[in-house]
Amino acid sequence: MLLHFGYLILCQILRLVAQGMRGERSKDVEISVLRHQVAVLRRQVARLDLEPVDRAVLPALSQLLPRSRWSTFVVTPATLLRWHRELVARKWTYPKRRPGRPPIGAEIRALVLRLARENPTWGHRRVQGELFRLGYRVAPSTVWTILTDAGVDPAPRRGGPTWTQFLTAQANGVLACDFLHVDTIGLTRIYALFLMEVSTRRVHILGATEHPTGSGSLSRPGTC
After folding, report:
1. N or C end of the chain: which has fewer CB within 10 A?
2. Comparing C-alpha atoms, which of 104, 105, 143 is closest to residue 126?
3. DSSP designation for 210
4. What is the DSSP annotation of 19-33?
């Protein structure tokens, strides 16, 4: 009885409020009803089945509301960002490469490293020639790749410092340069040219542009 009586009082209050609202103010009641229905659906539906049109409309509408009101949406901001990452991945997906040459066996790899270690004055072509005499038909580029992957310097510099040791000693005067790219919400790719101090890992942004091979100038530089 108490619950029923309380429900009747609530209906009367809402009826009086609705009668006092006319014109545009009546939309507030409709918005309240819709919000309550969304809350009910959130409790009942674990995963929403959204169409591509829904994924386009919701991010567009999110730009019209301040971040403090984003709780209105049935999806979270993290979901919107995930949709954007999926679009970027689909746009910049490149075809897979065909299988190349078969991998070099462990026996040949060990033999190349042994010949290079026991003969510091031999280059990769000399090592390849010795392998050919032993009955192993391996290209000179393959021998060079094996030595490079193992960190073996070209002859006759194998007795000197390694590349890691050189970088450690010269880090204060070495700069690394490269491009990085960022994709906007409209799937526009922006390229940024940057330098990094090897010793401090400090990054200097030299500029950003949408056309890295064009003749236009880069935007203002910065440091991070």
Report:
1. N
2. 143
3. S
4. HH--GGGHHHHHHHH
Higher pLDDT, 68 or 213: 213
Task: Name the DSSP class of 46.
Answer: S
Handedness of CA 57, 58, 60, 61 (dihedral sign): positive
Measured between alpha carbons, how far is 17 from 13 in angstroms, rounded to an integer? Answer: 6
The two tokens of residue 94 are 């490149």
Q: How far apart are CA 144 and CA 128, in angstroms?
A: 9
**Closest by Cα among 37, 32, 79 to 58:** 79
* CA gap 152, 120 in Å, rounded: 10
pLDDT band at 52 (very low <50, low <70, confident <90, very high): confident
Locus of tokens 């108490």:
2
Dig out the tokens for 90 from the structure.
């689909």
Closest CA to 115 of 106, 126, 101, 104: 126
